[in-house]
Amino acid sequence: MKNVTYISAGAGSGKTYTLTNILADLISRDKDDPEHIEPEQVILTTFTVKAANEFKEKAKAELYKIGKFDEASRLDNALMGTIDSVASTLIQKYWYTIGMSPKQGVMDDSAKATYINQSIANIPSDEDLQFFTKFRKAFNVVDNEFKPNENFWKDHLKVIVEKSISFDITDYTTSIEESLRVLKKLCKGVHIHIENGQRIAVLEAMHTEVEGCKESGKKNDTLVAIDTLQRNSRYMDDIEWFTEFGNIVKGAPAVSKNSVPIPILEDAKQKARDIWCSQEVYDLQEKYIQTIFRLAKEWNKQYTEYKLNKRIVDFSDIEHYMHKLLQDKEVAKEVGRTYTHLFVDEFQDCSPIQVKIFMALADVVQKSYWVGDTKQAIYGFRGSDTLLTKAVADAIAAKKGEDGCKSRTLEESWRSVPALVEANNKAFVEIFRPVFGEDTDELVPLKPAMELHPEMFKVRLEDRAKNPLRYLNIEQRRSAKSPKLNVKDVAQYIKNVIEQEDVALSDIAVLGRTGYDLDDVQAELNRLGIECDRETTLNKASRACQLMMALTTLTVNPQDDLAKASIAYLTQDNMGIGTIIDSKLEYNNTPKEERQPWLGETEMVSRVAALRPSVMYQGIGALMETLAIELDVKNVMERWEEPIEDCMTDVKALIAAAKQYEERSSELAQPATPSGFVTFLSENEVKLPITGNGVQLLTYHGAKGLEWKYVFVLMDESLDQASILSRDFYGIHHFHPELPSAENLYPKMSIRLLPWIFGTKKNVPESIADQLFPTEEYATLENHIKEESARLLYVGMTRAAEVLVIVPWLKNKELDWLKQSGLANAGNLDGGDVLGVGVPFNIVKAQFPAEGEDIQSAPEPKQYHKLDYHSDTPSDAPWLTVAPSGVKGKSDEVEVVYRSEQFIKINSGKLHGRDYSEVGDCIHNVYAAIEHLNQEEVERLIRSHGMDDVLPNADEVIRAWDNLQGFLKREFGEPEAVYHERPFRQLQENGTIVIGSIDYVYRISEGAILIDFKTFPQIEAVTNPTSPHFAGYYAGQLNAYATALEANGEKVIKRFIYYPVSGMVVEIG
């Protein structure tokens, strides 16, 4: 590494201005000046295309100022862009030196994510999947909704392969060893295994002990739980059993002081306490860790083969090829002759391979300028290596001119008013001193440029906002039990500021740690009529998206009747669902020789047909764009109730996504089709851009590089040990077993996998936590987390130009984030020393209107009614999507066509507060897979629903299915095909979309037979028109099923409801 100038640029210190001035100065020098460079000799890398373009335009502006017009225009010939685009350019030029095809396709991050999602499911063997099921059951692995998480292993495998790609990890030996090393510290080697007979004895002893307790609800609940566990004991492994037993012990009533301990029971209680340190738990985790890393290795091999076969590379490959390219001496010399200067922006966010590339380029070019700020390194989750980039920056500074390497610091803040600069200086000098040591006073504080160079600013300091440092005092919780403070105060104070301080909405930003907290703020601001602006996700179910997809599909496939129906419904007021169905039935009943194209007379359908010959060969994106213009969809959408701006934003975003999909398909050597685009949309979020019209709501990560006049910083982070342990210690994390240093910049990166084994518990059990807190691994992690959190805090608190408002978020933890980041004295509200560094804040409170005053004095926010546009009032509008059971309708044509006289016994007394719908869900799930299950597997499935005491006889459930099959075969013969849980979407006349699945479709040559399963057991009620359980009330649901199949070109000949509990088949006319 030689001739590198590292520029340390704190927030708002003018790094872009500095770099552009350096570049413009070098270009503008006389040609005989040894420092002079030509525009074509420049390489500049940034992390986004937008940033590269902004840099180029600002450099051009500097050259224009001094009359260098030719040089400014020639900057377009400089090699500027992201590291991947720069690398791709050089690889295309020198591909032959690294044995790579010049026509290699490029797999972007979206395509890679899609491939990962689809391919990891095919990696495990059946044996692996059986083990994952065992692991899930043993540790009660659940998803965010506390439902059994069948795909938990996919989530782990996906993260590991993504980190493997980012950090070039191919050998997992160290990762496995490091993961197991931590677990071994927790394992005491005790065994918890006991035979089923011993389990029964333990539970009987427990029953006896509890029976001796005083009468109470807790006693009764415990006895019921003991009985349930006793029935299920033989189906459970040791870990499952002791986990449940331990829960019973914890919930049991206090034992009488005179009670004599029962040895077998006391031994079992001790084992339950030791469960997480047992050999059985360790063995299961060990096998899981080894299995996941083995599968990751297999996936890496398959991924490499896939790319070779498809002749494609991903961005990680491009970076590695670029580094390999620079190892060729002849290529390196030629690069050095072509390019003389290298500029690198945001160096602190580089990955290891990117650092290697820049160091290799530094040895090739004449001079390098790298700009970075360790204090703003917040993208470790994207693959950046903060420890490495800091070690490189330190190594450059340590050279002090040796080999032409030196470091300099930008010393002035050009963003914030002096009071903000002072507050941040004092706070972050204290916070970052453990990170920078003796260099802290040089690297952290900035001088206020507004005070030093007032002539450089258009707005005078005295004309800027008053009281730049504020703390919003909130005392009330949102509710009695909520840990969060009242968000209404935040919204009301923002409203106060807008009204009293004459500030534009777009000059205000609210920054939060998570999107969930910002959701709360947005809801309250909208309630007050204040418009918010936020990056959002495309609503793929919006009318605009539905119309554009239908138009595109019909252009490509003129026979697609569903697309025709959607277009007619969305574009013509007189084409409701009923009209469309009647039209289709009439069409189907018309002799084929007399038929005209269905809905061909519909204006928009006919216009598509006329336009098709001239556009049918366009790509999906270009086709959508042409259709939008030629068919004047804006005029159609203006008749809808949705704001036209939102509709057109959806259209533009959809077109942009289509073009992205086309590029991805091209890179993967796959055809781009409408159905493929639908799949692409389902697997990828489409982001809608920020408009810049309302109060800006962003996460701290999203705010980096931006600034506003007023910034509200939510203190929504708490770094207590329990949360660090559960959130950051368990799971999957990358780390350096050996830290980067000047002597060894590139130590290997490893991955630690510690699966969460504590079921629905929020925190790690105390017995485990007490062992982990003193470990070196936890101490290292806690230090890393707090440093990362401090950098995030720095980014947030340095976004404001004129006013910074600190907003407490958590009751009794109002300023924990500040304290845990290093400001131990933070929180002196009486003296206004909020940060605890001697800088006074104004303590402010929200001013609410007096009772009876109109709180809606601000402009009303836009209303988004993406429902039935015929509805006069939004409150009357139906839900956009409904389940089939929500479709209303009744038929009096109800006939019992089969009775088996054989019933499924239901122990109603064992429901314990549950209802028949849960029994129905259990039977539904059995029947959905019954053709692949034996009786033992049916019993296991019933048990997994907790219904084994309600449905004690699995053979009766199976027999009821066999009876249904016998009836269908006798009446209609053998089926051509059958479908379980057949999914469908069906557009209703009132604007709703019915989304669900048909329980069972029995298809014969004449058409389809629909069967819906219901579990209500009373035979008389089902056939009684006055009963709320009358079968005829399900006609609407069956109509929706039939309409969906008929729209797909299938004829429905019969519609049945099967009541397996009573053994009855009912036909609905």
Question: Can you describe this structure?
Answer:
The chain has 1069 residues and is an alpha/beta fold. The protein is 47% helix and 13% strand. A seven-stranded parallel β-sheet has the order 13-16-12-17-20-11-21. A hairpin with a 2-residue loop joins strand 25 (993-1004) and strand 26 (1007-1013). Helix 18 runs antiparallel to helix 34 (776-797). The longest helix has 32 residues, at 279-310. The chain is globular, with a radius of gyration of 34 Å. The termini are far apart.
Task: Please provide a brief summary of the model.
The chain is an alpha/beta fold.
How far apart are the termini?
Answer: 83 Å
Report the major sheet: 7 strands, parallel
Based on helices, strands and strand pairing, what is the structural class? alpha/beta
| Rough outline | globular
Number of helices: 40
Give, in spatial order, the strands making up the sheet with the most strands.
Answer: 13-16-12-17-20-11-21
List keywords for this structure.
1069 residues, alpha/beta, seven-stranded parallel β-sheet
Task: Map the helices and strands.
Blueprint: E1 4-9, H1 15-28, E2 42-46, H2 49-65, H3 69-74, E3 79-82, H4 83-94, E4 105-107, H5 109-119, H6 126-139, H7 152-167, H8 173-186, H9 196-211, H10 217-232, H11 238-251, H12 263-273, H13 279-310, E5 312-314, H14 315-326, H15 329-338, E6 341-344, H16 352-362, E7 367-372, H17 386-399, E8 406-410, E9 412-413, H18 418-436, H19 440-443, E10 447-448, H20 449-452, E11 469-472, H21 487-501, E12 508-512, H22 515-527, E13 532-533, E14 536-537, H23 543-556, H24 561-571, H25 577-589, H26 603-615, H27 620-630, H28 633-637, H29 644-667, H30 674-683, E15 687-688, E16 695-699, H31 700-703, E17 708-715, H32 721-729, E18 731-735, E19 750-754, H33 766-772, H34 776-797, E20 800-808, H35 816-821, E21 842-844, E22 881-882, E23 894-899, H36 916-929, H37 935-944, H38 954-972, E24 977-987, E25 993-1004, E26 1007-1013, H39 1019-1023, H40 1035-1047, E27 1052-1059, E28 1064-1068
Parallel strand pairs: 1-7, 1-8, 2-3, 2-6, 4-5, 6-7, 9-10, 11-20, 11-21, 12-16, 12-17, 13-16, 17-20, 22-25, 26-27
Antiparallel strand pairs: 14-15, 18-19, 23-28, 24-25, 25-26, 27-28
Helix pairs in contact: 1-2, 4-14, 6-13, 7-13, 8-13, 9-10, 10-11, 11-12, 14-16, 18-34, 21-22, 23-24, 23-26, 23-27, 23-29, 27-29, 32-34
